[in-house]
Specification:
The structure holds two protein chains of two kinds. Helix content of chain A is 43%, strand content 15%. Chain A has 29 helices and 21 strands. In chain A, the strands form four sheets. Chain A has an eight-stranded mixed beta sheet, sandwiched between helices. In chain A, helix 17 packs across helix 19 and helix 21 packs across helix 26. Chain B is 56% helix and 1% strand. In chain B, a hairpin with a 4-residue loop joins strand 1 and strand 2. The chains are: A alpha/beta, B mainly alpha. Chain A: Its EC number is 3.6.4.13. Chain A: Its main location: nucleus. Chain A: Pre-mRNA processing factor involved in disassembly of spliceosomes after the release of mature mRNA.
Amino acid sequence: MGERRSDFDEDNTRVKRIKVEQNGSSTPSKMDPAKNPYLAHWDNTDSKVSADGLSGFKRHATTAKQAQAAEDGPLNPFTAQPLSQRYMSILEKRRDLPVHAQRDEFLRLYQKSQILVFVGETGSGKTTQIPQFVLFDDLPHLNGKMVACTQPRRVAAMSVAERVANEMDVKLGEEVGYNIRFEDMTGPKTMLKYMTDGMLLREAMHDHNLTRYSTIILDEAHERTLATDILMGLLKEIVLRRPDLKLIIMSATLDATKFQKYFHEAPLLAVPGRTHPVQIFYTREPERDYIEAALRTVLHIHATEPEGDILLFLTGEEEIEDACRKINMEVDEMIREADAGPLKVYPLYGSLPPQQQQRIFQPAPPPFKEGGRPGRKCIVSTNIAETSLTIDGIVYVVDPGFSKQKVYNPRLRVESLLVSPISKASAQQRAGRAGRTRPGKCYRLYTEKAFKEELIAQTYPEILRSNLASTVLELKKLGVEDLVHFDLMDPPAPETLMRALEELNYLACLDDEGDLTALGKLASEFPLDPALAVMLISSPEFYCSNEILSLTALLSVPQIFVRPAKERKRADEMKDLFAHPNGDHLTMLNAYHAFKGDEAQENPKQWCHDHFVSYRALSQADNVRLQLKRIMEREEIELMSTSFENKKYYENIQRALVAGFFMQVAKRDGNGKTYLTVKDEQSVLLHPSTVLGQDSEWVVYNEFVLTTKNYIRTVTAVKPEWLLDIAPNYYDIDSFKKGEVKTALQRVADKVRRKELAKAGPSRRY
Amino acid sequence: MAQSDEEDDYMNMTFEDVTNTPKETSLQRRVRKQREGEERGRIKSKAELKDEEEAAREAALSKALDTSSKGFKMMAKFGFKQGDTLGKSEDARKEPIRVSVKEDRGGIGHASDKKRKFKEQMEAAAKRAKVQEETQDEYLERIRQEHKEKELTGQLRSAQKVAERLDEEADEHGRENEASANVGDPGEKDRNTVPNTRPLKSMNVLYREIVRNRAEKERDRIVRKGLTSSLPRLSAVGEEEDVAYDPTTSADIARTLAENELDEEDRELEEFNALPIAERLEKLVLYLREKYHYCFWCKYRYPDAELDGCPGVTEEDHD
């Protein structure tokens, strides 16, 4: 309460101050009437001059002082509109940010050097301020260029763009916009574009020199996403071809020397974040059960520590929801029996709907009575709270030392999310979260020895943990021929590239020489995995491109079926309404078609709620479908459907699935429950969520999930004849290892041959 | 010479299958098929399945993609060779990152702690085994030492005997005033024919021990003799306490023989005996050389102090 009031007061004083400034600026007789916002309506003819708060600005030779004067208004230097009061109040806060103090230093280095490495810890204001500093010096709009600032996450790109649009007092999508996959929120006036790193990479495919940009800022480079790593490799070459292009690498961790080294000893500017010391505690002995230890620690903090919120890091949705439930139970007991203060527990993970994510920002509950034990909130989060989301008020961090990380092994051809130990850098980042508002404490649920000896220094960059098929296709499209010597900061194991090339060759996207085929070129136009793209492109051959388009969209969004812990039975019953006996892909499609039906569209939200499907995921799929449809129309890929009455309606869809996913096929092992993946011969089980019965001998799957059991998820039945027919290169029987799969395929091939001979008739037998 | 067709063509590379397995009978085949069918149809236990799953995963993970991959051929076009890395940095990866599935809720360091404890136990066990091994070595060494000592003791005894005899001979010479020395191997003479009547302590410490041992032996013999002679009396009593010989009786006998000297302390002898055998032997060898120009190793008494013809002081010199 008290805090809120002081905020209010601050706003008031700011309003007053602005008034004074405005009065002051209007009184001197020297004042150019054209610059007086109150007289702006007098002179509409020369709005450009009056708008030009940037009149004395010489590109790449400006100072912080000049920029600040322009920022002070009274007119918006970029739009010539009068600046709002909200702008002024935000401006005040912006000037408090640590980066502001080093604006001049930043400008000097930026002007002097083509490449700059900028280190700003979380809370320094780098993501919102640096691009604006650049705008005032680079003046991209005067040259018809833009400044790009990449973000690893879609949400961040959107929310930061919105924030900066507010800061600059412009409408989002005009001067400041964002561009993420399947959503372009920019316009002809856009001069600052926040975008996902993946989007910039896609743009480079058509514009190899990224000529639309005069400055490119790679933000959160320390996260080392696949796209950022590839972009760095590309930009390292582009800056040589384009001396006029400026590049800023922004990182939140101090290990920025690696970036410096990679970019030929580029100058480095570091701005300290606003952090308080954090005391770190280790356990004496390794924990037998990290979740149990985490809960114990949270309750201990609540019972004994002074005021301050708690942030607990766990690995995934299920674990988090379970932990929240348990903490709530225990706290209720503590309140009843030990007079503990109130504790509000909030889960936080990526697939949580945004409204629920927002709840973490609610203030902690007050004590039960005046002067009573403090109330607090406890956020139980995945590692999204590690860097991307900043929650003020956190004083205690509980770190069990695990996170779910993507892993890919080219030998197993499985890309999966696995619970893995975090890195030292990650642990440091987590601890830092406790020191945002005041000195904090971090409880590491492992020994100091384990920290030193078991945690790797840095998290492996995504490029070392990913299937590179998609990336290879993009790079080929980008004109990078020699992938072997492409200068990556951390090159992956050669086998990863080998496997990617091989897969693309089977998909006929690359020929045997490794050159892009026509299909490959077309596939690279789609922001999709090559298998999905190939399926979509070949779908007209199976007379079902409309359906495959929908299916592709559905496979590109989060799971559409919802199964809340409390209503599992009901949810399963609802899913059965859409179930198709031949598989999950077809079931998803049925659900989508029902969603698009008149009945559902009357009140789609209610309908989704009633039928246990995710409205968010389905709407997103709708949007993705629309974007993909545009690309298909542009590329002249025919959209068609088999009539629903035709008995081949579903079969055609199943066959089209094989065209993309023939490398993800499993055959039932004997008569048991297990399946064997073809070629790799991994023993797998159908995921319990499947609608498919146990009687399908051959299945195509969307995902191989590696857990304590191997599962294949989103599964649909196929016929082995289709495999031989649609993907003869992959199903070259001679290339198979001796075993059940080979024998079965051989039998099918023989049968097919006999049938053909019989059809051809005895006359052609010789 | 014409080669007949019947002759074995030893250049022929085809070998007839000599290990011709006996034909499977229909019954055997049926049994085999049935067994195979059962094996296939059997529902495996969860543990078995899990093991198989893991084994298959491990097998796939440990097998690197080889040069037959089409991807490899495409890379080879750009000069890639087996064992190369990608990119331009020096420390690029060669192997993909390992995939490990976490199967429990153990905290960081828990698994390795367990492993460490296990390893410690293993190491302790290994250490124990090693200790045993070491004792075995030590045992052999001890045997070697014992053997060596036995050998040295033998040499010491014979050197002492030589010295004793030479000294006695010298004494006799002195007493009988014989001018000519007896040149020759003294070992050939029977030493025991000359009874020693002098007090023990006047004997040269170098060989006093053998004299003393002899005396002790003699005393024991006499004691035993006395004991046997008194046996009938003892057996007549038949009481246990009387079975032990009477110390007073035996002591009296001993006194008559060794003049009670045997029970006295002999510091000089103790000191000498405390020396290592090799040193005692060396002392004796030198004594013999200096006093009698006798080389213990040559077993020869030289005419003068030059010991002309003797290769040296130690046994090794005489090898």
